[in-house]
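Hi support team,

I submitted a single chain yesterday and got back a structure, but I'm not sure I'm reading the token output correctly. Could someone confirm the output below corresponds to the sequence I sent? I've pasted both exactly as they appear in my results page.

Thanks,
R.
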Amino acid sequence: MTSPADAVIDLYQRHAATYDGLRGKTLFERAWLDRFLALVPERAAILDIGCGSGEPIARHFLEKGHAVTGIDSAPSLIALCQERFPQASWEVQDMRRLALGRRFDGVIAWDSFFHLTAPDQRAMFQVFAAHAGANAALMFTSGPSDGEAIGSFEGEPLYHASLAPEEYRSLLAENGFAVLEHAAEDESCGGHTIWLAQREGAAQGAP
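Hi R., thanks for writing in. Yes, this is the structure output for that exact sequence:
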């Protein structure tokens, strides 16, 4: 039997249109997105990991003049992105195996990274580092504390997991990121737990 963690990609693939309809477009995340954008140059190259349907976050970046590369594991969601924003770059990719061979000014994983198991989350920090250029911004959402949570989407289990805040801080530091801001269950942002960090100095091994 497929575990809830292994079923996440297929769940979004089958219910992409429903997810897109339910996904809020009011940009309640704006304040945090603008903090992230304040750390990147004009016309920055931004990597959106788990981009979903491209709205509202990728749209916000594109409207600000930035170049977006979005990746998602669900082909149906990437198809929506390609239809809406053909000027951006969209790829069907599993974030756990992401290796684009280039670095970005900003990397974001909003409401996506937290669908991974704890071991996969730990491994993702090397993926973040491999795609972050010198002084790149990194922002992601997590749970507020260590553990797993099973939500529901279209009547099916939807897996979430989180590491402890102390472990996130350690993994960020080990991979060359300094934490700039951290908010646990931010009421002004729909109760999201948010991490905003920046790559310290030159990216190691950058081309």
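A quick pointer for reading it: Residues 203-207 have pLDDT under 50 and may be disordered. Let us know if anything else looks off.

Best,
Support desk
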